[in-house]
Amino acid sequence: MDKIYLITEERLKGIMMEAIDEYRKCTAESGSTARVEEYLDTKQVCTVLGISTRTFQRWRDENRIPFIQRGRKIYVKRSDLDAFQDANLIDARQ
Fold first, then answer.
1. Digit-coded pLDDT (tens) for 50-93
2. Domain that holds residue 25
3. Are 42 and 56 spatial neighbours (Cβ–Cβ below 8 Å)?
4. What is the pLDDT of residues 41-62, one digit of tens each?
5. Are residues 53 and 17 located together in one domain of the fold?
6. What b-and-e string marks burial along 45-77, b requiring 16 or more CB atoms within 10 Å of the CB?
7. Is residue 92 domain-resident?
8. Range with the largest mean pLDDT of 16-20, 30-34, 36-40, 42-46
9. CA–CA distance from 74 to each of 30, 41, 60, 61, 77 (Å)?
10. Please, where are the H alpha helices in the chain?
11. HSE-CB for 3 with a 13 A CA cutoff
């Protein structure tokens, strides 16, 4: 048989704050930033880079840009796309 417990709102808030503090402590110790990675599909990548889907396909074939394939869909991590852009940055002030 299930038991039913009655607690005050103050006690519930205390329990929630303890759980949040414990979570923060654990993530700080592990060095985790608890950041959720964003994934972009082919259309989004082409829009960000200003390229055609064919160019994006060629770059994938040449292993110039990392990607993930799920079935027939292609995704690129936002952090990988940012790194790709940084690595191919041309300073126009020269």
1. 999 999 999 999 999 999 999 999 999 999 999 999 998 887 77
2. 7-36
3. yes
4. 999 999 999 999 999 999 999 9
5. no
6. bbeebeeeeeebeebbeeeebebeeeeeebbbe
7. no
8. 42-46
9. 31, 6, 10, 12, 10
10. 9-30, 42-49, 53-61, 78-87
11. 3
DSSP state at residue 36: P
Residues 47 and 81 in one domain: yes
Tokens read off for 27: 């993530």
Does 78 share its domain with 55?
yes
How many domains are contained in the chain?
A: 2
Do the Cβ atoms of 46 and 53 come closer than 8 Å? Answer: yes
pTM summary value: 0.59
Residue with tokens 């082409």, as numbered in its chain:
46
Place of tokens 């205390």: 14
